[in-house]
UniProtKB/TrEMBL annotation:
Keywords: Acyltransferase, Cytoplasm, Hydrolase, Iron, Metal-binding, Protease, Transferase, tRNA processing. Belongs to the KAE1 / TsaD family. GO terms for cellular component: cytoplasm. InterPro entries: ATPase_NBD (IPR043129), Gcp-like_dom (IPR000905), KAE1/TsaD (IPR017861), Peptidase_M22_CS (IPR017860), TsaD (IPR022450). The keyword Cytoplasm applies. This is tRNA N6-adenosine threonylcarbamoyltransferase. It catalyses: L-threonylcarbamoyladenylate + adenosine(37) in tRNA = N(6)-L-threonylcarbamoyladenosine(37) in tRNA + AMP + H(+).
Amino acid sequence: MEKKDIIILGIESSCDDTSAAVVRNGVLLSNVTASQAVHEAYGGVVPELASRAHQQNVVPVVDQALKRAGVAKEELSAVAFTRGPGLMGSLLVGVSFAKGFARALDIPMIEVNHLQGHVLAHFIKEDEGDRDQPEFPFLCLLVSGGNSQIILVKAYNDMEVLGQTIDDAAGEAIDKCSKVMGLGYPGGPIIDRLARQGNPQAYSFAKPHIGGYDYSFSGLKTSFLYSLRDWMKEDPDFVEHHKEDLAASLEHTIVDILMKKLRQAAKDTGIRQVAVAGGVSANNGLRNAFREHADRYGWRIFIPKFSYTTDNAAMIAITGHFKYQDKDFCTIDMPAYSRVTLK
């Protein structure tokens, strides 16, 4: 008897990107994302505007994902969706759509933890011959606007958070410092671009002193704010005159904080397979630091493609693929959740 293909539709709507992807037998066929530019004017994501945009985008995005994959909806094995964490209004659009779609097709539903999806983005295959995936166990540095965590990944469904931020996340600190400098939102790509032209040793900012593998970025943010205030008393145009050096020094400080704890975790666990995931993993300074650590410490590193660093449905679909194989389905009464960490 011929083995039936496992075809998973993934839906991601945790923040301001509406995304749908199709995976067949673990190989990505399509990954379609509609982003929302409306939030730039407000310096951050406006939840009500985000959920309205998801309502407009979800049907066309799913339609395009199926068409590009060359898959009819009747061929789908299951629908995987982001259940949380994220913005509740945004999540509800994706969750509600997934429930209605799965019920109409009479196929199983698979709920996915958004953070687990980011980690498992490393297992997205673009073709059958793609073998560049980490082996279990590995360490993953998950860094985004809402999370900064060091995760011990023992299996696709067995992850232990070794350390995490006790206040702000790395991405949040970058966005807020960019806003203070008047550079705009989102701050990550702006700081990254400017930092390539600046001196990372030009300025020094406060670094936290907390035990274990936990992170803290609120002190750095305060130090940056107060330093900027003092410098602008002397020169009101200080930011304009020194924005490249400020960006490079800020990025260098954040990357240094992130890598110091990760180095310690790798040393203590003896694990040399180290991955990075989440929105901040698109940052070139962090990517370069990973490459330097690979050379210096003999790490085998895994850095995702830029398209898999931000919120995307490909990571939800591949997680759904793994869960489908274990028949790990959920019931239709499963609610969305806004806050949770990895177990």
